[in-house]
Amino acid sequence: MDKSLRPAVIAGNWKMNKLRGEARALVEGILPALAKADCRVIACVPFTDLETVLEAARGSRLHIGAQNCHWAQSGAYTGEISAPMLAEMGVEYVILGHSERRQYFGETDATVNARLKAALASGLRVILCVGETLEQRQRGITAPVCSMQVRSALYEIPEAAMGDLLIAYEPVWAIGTGKTATAAQAGEVCGLIRDTVADLYSGRVAERLCIQYGGSMNPGNAAELLDQPDIDGGLIGGASLRAEEFAQIIQAASR
Ligand code: PGA
What we know:
Structural class: alpha/beta
Strand order of the largest sheet: 1-2-3-4-5-6-7-8
Bound molecules: 2-phosphoglycolic acid
Shape: globular
Helix content: 40-55%
Oligomer: single chain
Radius of gyration: 17 Å
């Protein structure tokens, strides 16, 4: 499949980090790297930082995302944030199904699917996260686990919406651990995810789908990972919190 059909996309997942002043400083630190970037760059920030970073990034090439949204438009869901609330602010992207949400907050394939439908209906673009645990990898069930997560998340998602979707393959055992999947391991599962999407929709949809790798991606391993035929970008946690490192990954992704 032709990789040049897909723009490289580097997204930072700030997780629960950065007070507003720190968020502004980090965006200001990233912006110079964008001037010469030949890839799309997204910062997915805490809800409380959204207004600050939207303002700091205005007029630049930095795209802004949130890290979750609810499946309902509004209602009695104390503590939650809906997709229309994000869209109204001018937020463009949202991460859904991150393994930390699945692990600590009871997120299931069904709720990820419901959130995905809500996000797309509000005009948001979605970074859908899938990935196996260490135990699943050791049992040799990485392929069916990741394929099932993709199939469940995309249940009843029409082909027309697929242009607004990115998938991030994040092996749970590689997130925040410093253990990266080898480029070959990561590339293999990203290829499998693309095959799953081809099976669900068509080869044409799969060929245009951006698939990111995430899990301890850093300036030292980014180039090799991004060189894999089925890896089109990265979802970066720890290294996205340091402007210099994030800039180096942006550079590695600029072809
Ligand atoms: P990490 O996080 O780069 O710190 O491993 C990646 C992620 O969880 O999205």
